[in-house]
TrEMBL record:
Gene3D superfamilies: Cyclophilin-like. This is Peptidylprolyl isomerase. Pfam families: Pro_isomerase (PF00160). PROSITE patterns: CSA_PPIASE_2 (PS50072). GO terms for molecular function: peptidyl-prolyl cis-trans isomerase activity.
Amino acid sequence: MVTNEQRRRQLAREKFERQQQRREATRRKAHRRNAVIAAGVAVVLAAGATAYATGALVDDKKKDTAADAAPTPKKGPDPCAKPAPGTPSAKTWKSEPEMTVDKSASYAMNLTTTCGTIDLKLDAANAPHTVNSFAFLAKEGFFDHSKCHRLTTAGIYVLQCGDPKGTGQGGPGYTIEDENLKDSKLKGNVYPAGTVAMANTGQPHTGGSQFFLVYQDSQLPPQYTPFGTIGAEGMKTLKKIAAAGEQSGAGDGAPNATVVIDKAAVTGS
């Protein structure tokens, strides 16, 4: 026969177990939420490692239940035109191109995209290797017909481009050194809206051709070479792309807008 004291202890134990289960469920949800944001921070920046979010998000989705479902992908209208005829570049090079830029000159990059023009003012004085590489790649048609493959809309706010493969794994075959990481504009580890910066693999001096365009202030460690600023027309185009959202529904995925760089050109004066 169960005594009142035994029954009381049993009920207390069951209550404790229920509390532990609720706490564990809350912990798992917080872990998933933080993983999504952390993945966004890590990639932007990872220009060659797709493991950044793919594995983590897939594993989390497997753990989801009907009561804790994965975010529903959002599909907004595509505000962009059809791409110009042509195929992405397959060129690669064994080493960084010879330095030809004049650090005292002014350089600009114009990206003619399916969503509108993105105009960039390049900082050759503080990021000469990066600007030199972009001038070389643009002249070679490396960026032409390539997709901007990644849009983040939570925690960090960037559009990532520069990979002809459109997967986040492509590059020119060479890497360039980090530059301008102590730029005074990067106050409080914030890349301000209007910044264009290099993506990398998470290790020093691993930038290639991938870059990201910041359309809203974004908290990031100063590990990504800032090498220019986005003009008014470019910001307008980026806002239109961002407003269309991204495909995962989690704030980090392929943009709903079909963003293709029809033509990239660098000019100097």
